[in-house]
Amino acid sequence: MYYSLFEIFAVGIxxxxxxxxxxxxxxxxxxxxxxxxGLLTKVQTLKTKLYGSLALTGVGHGTLxxxxxxxxxxxxxxxxxxxxxxxxVMQNKQLSLLGQHKIAFSxxxxxxxxxxxxxxEHSNGMTFCALDENNNVILEETxxxxxxxxxxxxxxxxxxIDRKPYDVPYQFNSCRELxxxxxxxxxxxxxxxxQNEKAIQPSHFSVTKNILRxxxxxxxxxxxxxxxxxxxxxxxxxxRHAKEMYERLQNKFANNATDSLxxxxxxxxxxxxxxxxxxxxxRMVTAPTMGSAGVIPAVMRYMERYGKFNSETERKNAxxxxxxxxxxxxxxxxxNASISGAEVGCQGEVxxxxxxxxxxxxxALGGNNNQIExxxxxxxxxxxxxxxxxxxxxxxxxxxxxxxxGAIKAVNAARLALQGSGAHIVSLDSIIKTMYETGLSLNRDxxxxxLAGIAKNALSC
Length: 461
Ligand code: SF4
Description:
Elements: H1 5-8, E1 11-13, H2 17-36, E2 45-51, H3 52-61, H4 63-72, H5 87-92, E3 94-97, E4 101-104, H6 107-110, E5 111-114, E6 125-131, E7 137-147, E8 150-153, H7 175-184, H8 189-200, H9 207-225, H10 242-254, H11 262-279, E9 283-285, H12 295-306, H13 312-336, H14 341-344, H15 350-364, H16 369-381, H17 399-419, H18 428-441, H19 454-457
Parallel strand pairs: 2-5
Antiparallel strand pairs: 1-9, 2-6, 3-4, 6-7, 7-8
The structure holds iron/sulfur cluster (SF4).
Iron/sulfur cluster (SF4) binds next to α17.
């Protein structure tokens, strides 16, 4: 199935696309369904049950707040990160459904964490139940947050998305098909994606302008993150480091120090800046998730800083090529595997971001389609088995450093691929299949539950 570039890269509020943006969307869709059925004003009580990973790490990931925002009818892309939308809920224990119908509501009493129950369809399950004044159920629905902010209702779970397949000129389900279509039509992967996007977006919508807008927002999150200091929320007392890392590097230059690995320091700073912004609940672009949102912006900044561009137009075209190519790679992972840490571990988040970034970088630097596939495959090959074990359920440790490691690995994968002809033994399709099988066979405790790994052994929360 083809996933749009604007699904792979979507705007929201951190820290987690699957635990924040997805539940918010699901909660909003549920109350909109109530409204469409003429039931909204009959609601007296609204109960939510969170299951599996959502229950185990939802408090640290901000899921309870996200569900409340959804009931209020808020949209993650339009929210102001610094505004306190929950003031009335916290002070008066009241919530206005879609801003139209007030009910009594308490985060701690009306959202139940079913930590011992994981629904069979997916680890990120949630059930919403609306009751009338006589305590009769008037509507009950179960949703799943399947990764990257995408949701599916229980009856849609086989499609893993709440929409019909897009009608695009170039439909592909595997990298093999993608490469064949590109060869037959003598086009690059980025050109194919741009053609598909033009077919599915409304006529007034400028595809390239909106890709550049996403690029700008990603770069903005680097700049904002590099200016902030202090501690991240959540009680773990994780200090923001990007600003001091940046200042240390500036001092080094001021003292005329030379270091052949300075590019690595820069990539670390850029990835930290975005990942810290995400952990702090800032505005983010999923790439392909929020936990892994630092990888692609950092690699794009590296491309801009170290690539050879003769004009601003060349620079912009490189950014469009990068994001279009990496979205096709992201689409392959979403169609044939998963980008949910709760389903396949961090290999599905930072691993996929690394793979997308490596392919995007090769494309932007002029590599051919085979080299792009090679880079994306190398990048994932060395993320296989990566577990998801965030300490205290917060998207901070190991997540922030992991973004930096993913970005550096992506640059190395791209450099390796660019040094070859594009010929390779392991195909991207086979590595995607391997990643998925590895993820499914990982013990559940290593998939965004904070019950094992570093989360268990480093310190107790
Ligand atoms: S360990 Fe990876 S997948 Fe898990 S929360 Fe952190 S960034 Fe996301």
